[in-house]
C-alpha cells in the first residue's frame, strides 16, 4: 500500500495530517488567521525503502519517515513548524514554492544562520496561495535530499473542487547498492557535470510501488511532487485521460498533457484530475517514458471488483480558483537576459568563479568539482555572493532564460511565482504560473512576474548537483 494515499476528509477525521490545530480554540472568521503547527525532527532512521525482499535502508529523515510527514494547511492560515536538528551536520528547511517573508526562506547564510546539530529553529508565516508544495533542506542539499530529507506540503483551497479522493504521490529516486544501502558517491564529478545524480530505484511515498487501487467511476485528484535530485519524469497514464489543473500548485486552464505525458523536472509539481472510466477488475500501467533508453513501469492502476461508483463521470467543474499573485504588466516590464552555461559536452565557455579569476577550461573545472556551471558567466561558490540581478520592488520584470548547455535545467526562483509566457520566442498557450521552469538544451524561456517580495532570493537550477557545482545566483528585490 502506498503511504499517504487518503482522501482529504478521511485524513482530517483520522488525524493523519500531523496538525495540532484540532487542539486549538475555534476562532472568529474576523480574527487572526488560524495557526497550524508541526514539529519536524531531522534525524537518521532505517526504513523499508526497497521492500521486504531487501534489508532496511539507513536514511536521513523527518520524524523517522521518508518522505517526511505531509503538512496540510488551508489557504490563508498561519503555518508554524519547529525544526529540530538531530543530524551530525548543519541543516535548514526551505518551503519550496510558497511565497513567504524572506527571513523564513530557509537559505543558510542568506536568510538565516544554519541550524546546527542539537539546535532548533521556528518557521512561521501565512500561506496566501493554495496548492501542492514541498519542504527540503538548503544546506548540503545534494546529499541531504539524496539521503531522504524532503516532505510534501499541501495548502487546501477555501473552496475545493469536487473529487472522491485527494491523493499525494511524492516521487523520488535513490541510488542504492546491492544490499539496499544508499551509495556514498555524493559529489561525483560526472554527476555534477552531466545530468545530475540519477538513482536506480524509484519510489512513491517512500516505497517501491506495486499497485494503486481504484474503483470504477470515481474521480481522483492526484498531486504529483518530484523530490528527486535530478530525475525528470515523463508519465504516461495508459488507458486514462488525465487533465492537468495546476502546475507547481498554481491553477491553470484544465487540459490534457501535451504529447500525452506529464513531465516533471526536479522540484516541480503537477495536479491531475483523473476519472476512472474503465471496467472493474482491469489494470493499466503508468509508464515513465522521459528517458527513451530507460522506459519502465512505475506502477499499475488496478480496478477493484466493486461495481462502479457512478455510471458516468462527474460533470462539476475542475477549474481551480485563482491564487493571489499580482498580474505582471508585460508591455511595461523591465527586461533581463540570463544565460546558463557549462557542463560536459556544452562547450564550457569561460566563466568567472564567484566573481574572481578565469578558470582554465574543462579539465580544471572537472578536477575541482566546482565552477562547472555558470549564470551570466559567474559560478556560485558561496556562502554569499553579490546579487546576479537587482530588481525594483513593485515593478514587472521579464527574464529571458537561455539554456546554452547540453543538459536540462529546472530553474527555480525563491519568493515568487512567475508566468511562463514564451519558449524560443513563441507565446505559450496557457501562460502557466510556475516557480520552477524546465528548460531543454539550447532552449530559451521567458518568465514574467511582479517583484513584490523584498529580500535576497536564491535563483538556481534544482538539479542538486548542478547547484552545488555553481548554477546558483542571488536576485535582490528592493
CATH class of the largest domain: Mainly Beta
Number of E-type strands? 33
Summed up, the domain count is 3
**What is the assembly state of the chains in this entry?**
single chain
**Between the first and last Cα atoms, what is the distance in angstroms?**
48 Å
Can you tell me the residue ranges where pLDDT is under 50 for at least 5 consecutive residues? Answer: 1-31, 348-360
CATH topology of the largest domain: Immunoglobulin-like
Strand content: 35-45%
Which shape, going by the Cα principal axes? globular
Helicity, in percent?
under 10%
Helix count equals 5
Please identify which CATH superfamily of the largest domain we are dealing with.
Cupredoxins -  blue copper proteins
Please give the radius of gyration in angstroms: 22 Å
Structural class determined from secondary elements: mainly beta
Tell me what you see in this structure:
With 478 residues, this protein is mainly beta. It has 3 domains: 8-157, Cupredoxins -  blue copper proteins (Immunoglobulin-like), CATH 2.60.40.420; 166-303, Sandwich (Immunoglobulin-like); 334-477, Sandwich (Immunoglobulin-like). It is globular, with a radius of gyration of 22 Å. The chain has helices at 8-14, 141-146, 189-193, 362-368, 464-468; strands at residues 35-47, 57-62, 71-74, 78-85, 94-96, 120-126, 131-136, 151-156, 165-174, 201-204, 211-214, 219-226, 233-237, 243-247, 250-255, 262-264, 269-275, 283-288, 296-303, 334-342, 352-353, 373-375, 378-379, 389-391, 396-403, 409-413, 418-423, 426-427, 433-434, 436-439, 444-450, 455-461, 472-477. Strands 20, 22, 25, 27, 28, 29 and 31 form a 7-stranded mixed sheet that branches. A 6-stranded mixed sheet has the order 10-9-12-17-14-15, with no helix packed on it. A 5-stranded mixed sheet has the order 11-19-18-13-16, with no helix packed on it. The relative contact order is 0.13. Mean pLDDT is 90; it is low at 1-31 and 348-360. The chain has 5 helices and 33 strands. 6% of the residues lie in helices and 39% in strands.
Amino acid at each position: 500500500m502506498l503511504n499517504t494515499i487518503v482522501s482529504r476528509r478521511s485524513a482530517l477525521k483520522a488525524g493523519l495530517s500531523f496538525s495540532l490545530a484540532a487542539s486549538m480554540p475555534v476562532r472568529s472568521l474576523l480574527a487572526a488567521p488560524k495557526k497550524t503547527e508541526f514539529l519536524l525532527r531531522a534525524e537518521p532512521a532505517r526504513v523499508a525503502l526497497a521492500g521486504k525482499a531487501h534489508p532496511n535502508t539507513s536514511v536521513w529523515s523527518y520524524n523517522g519517515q521518508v518522505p517526511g510527514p505531509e503538512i496540510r494547511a488551508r489557504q490563508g492560515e498561519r503555518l508554524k513548524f519547529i525544526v529540530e536538528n538531530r543530524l551530525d551536520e548543519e541543516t535548514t528547511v526551505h518551503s519550496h514554492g510558497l511565497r513567504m517573508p524572506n527571513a523564513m526562506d530557509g537559505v543558510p547564510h542568506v536568510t538565516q544562520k544554519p541550524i546546527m546539530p542539537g539546535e532548533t529553529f521556528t518557521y512561521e508565516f501565512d500561506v496566501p496561495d493554495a496548492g501542492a508544495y514541498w519542504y527540503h533542506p538548503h544546506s548540503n542539499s545534494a546529499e541531504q535530499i539524496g539521503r531522504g530529507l524532503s516532505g510534501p506540503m499541501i495548502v487546501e483551497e477555501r473552496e475545493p473542487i469536487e473529487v472522491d479522493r485527494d491523493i499525494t504521490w511524492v516521487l523520488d529516486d535513490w541510488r542504492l547498492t546491492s544490499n539496499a544501502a544508499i551509495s556514498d558517491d555524493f559529489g561525483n564529478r560526472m554527476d555534477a557535470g552531466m545530468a545530475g545524480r540519477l538513482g536506480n530505484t524509484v519510489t512513491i511515498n517512500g516505497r517501491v510501488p506495486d499497485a494503486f487501487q481504484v474503483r470504477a467511476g470515481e474521480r481522483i485528484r492526484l498531486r504529483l511532487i518530484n523530490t528527486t535530485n535530478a530525475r525528470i519524469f515523463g508519465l504516461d497514464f495508459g488507458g486514462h485521460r488525465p487533465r492537468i489543473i495546476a502546475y507547481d500548485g498554481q491553477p491553470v486552464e484544465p487540459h490534457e498533457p501535451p504529447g500525452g505525458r506529464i513531465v516533471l523536472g526536479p522540484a516541480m509539481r503537477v495536479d491531475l484530475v483523473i476519472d476512472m472510466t474503465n471496467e472493474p477488475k482491469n489494470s493499466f500501467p503508468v509508464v515513465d517514458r522521459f528517458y527513451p533508453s530507460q522506459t519502465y513501469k512505475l506502477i499499475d492502476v488496478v480496478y477493484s471488483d466493486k461495481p462502479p461508483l457512478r455510471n458516468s463521470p462527474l460533470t462539476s467543474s475542475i477549474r481551480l480558483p485563482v491564487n493571489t499573485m499580482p498580474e505582471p504588466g508585460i508591455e511595461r516590464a523591465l527586461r533581463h537576459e540570463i544565460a546558463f552555461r557549462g557542463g560536459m559536452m556544452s562547450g564550457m565557455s569561460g566563466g568567472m568563479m564567484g566573481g574572481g579569476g578565469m578558470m582554465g577550461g574543462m579539465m580544471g573545472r572537472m578536477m575541482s568539482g566546482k565552477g562547472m556551471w555558470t549564470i551570466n558567466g559567474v559560478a556560485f561558490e558561496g556562502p554569499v555572493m553579490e546579487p546576479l540581478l537587482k530588481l525594483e520592488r513593485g515593478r514587472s520584470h521579464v527574464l529571458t532564460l537561455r539554456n546554452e548547455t547540453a543538459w536540462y535545467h529546472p530553474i527555480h526562483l525563491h519568493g515568487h511565482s512567475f508566468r511562463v509566457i514564451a519558449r524560443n520566442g513563441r507565446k505559450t498557450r496557457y501562460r502557466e504560473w510556475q516557480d520552477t521552469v524546465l528548460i531543454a538544451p539550447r532552449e530559451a524561456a521567458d518568465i514574467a512576474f511582479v517583484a513584490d517580495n523584498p529580500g535576497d532570493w536564491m535563483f538556481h537550477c534544482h538539479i542538486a548537483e548542478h547547484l552545488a557545482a555553481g548554477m546558483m545566483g542571488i536576485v535582490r528585490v528592493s
